[in-house]
């Protein structure tokens, strides 16, 4: 009885599912890429402004007016 259960579990775990797994990874990658593109578009102006302020502060400190 126990031997049959072990054999059944081994057969279940050894099924070939690489095609389905590859498709799942492609779908997850596409969703992640779309999220990154949307996120970058939303925060583009605020990040640009932040680096602008940092550049101004560094320039002012280089002139001695920190």
Describe this structure in words.
The protein is mainly alpha-helical and about 70 residues long. The chain has a domain at about 25-65. About 85% of the residues lie in helices and about 0% in strands. The protein has helices at about 1-15, 20-60. It is rod-shaped and about 85 Å long. The mean pLDDT is about 85. This is Flp family type IVb pilin. Keywords: Membrane, Transmembrane, Transmembrane helix. It comes from Alsobacter sp. KACC 23698.
Low-confidence stretches: none
Strand content: under 5%
Helix content: over 70%
The string of secondary-structure elements, in order, is HH
Assembly type of the shown chains? single chain
In DSSP terms, counting alpha (H) and pi (I) runs of 4 or more, how many helices? 2
Overall SS class: mainly alpha
Shape: rod-shaped
Transmembrane segments: 21-43
Protein name: Flp family type IVb pilin
Keywords: Membrane, Transmembrane, Transmembrane helix
What is shown here, in short?
It comes from Alsobacter sp. KACC 23698. This protein is mainly α. It has helices at residues 2-13, 18-62.
Summarize the helices and strands and which ones pair or pack:
Layout: H1 2-13, H2 18-62
């Amino acid at each position: 009885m126990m031997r049959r259960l072990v054999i059944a579990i081994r057969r279940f775990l050894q099924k070939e599912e690489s095609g389905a797994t590859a498709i799942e990874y492609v779908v997850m990658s596409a969703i992640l890429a779309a999220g990154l593109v949307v996120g970058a578009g939303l925060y583009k102006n605020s990040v640009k402004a932040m680096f602008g302020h940092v550049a101004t502060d560094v320039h002012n400190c280089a002139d001695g007016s920190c």
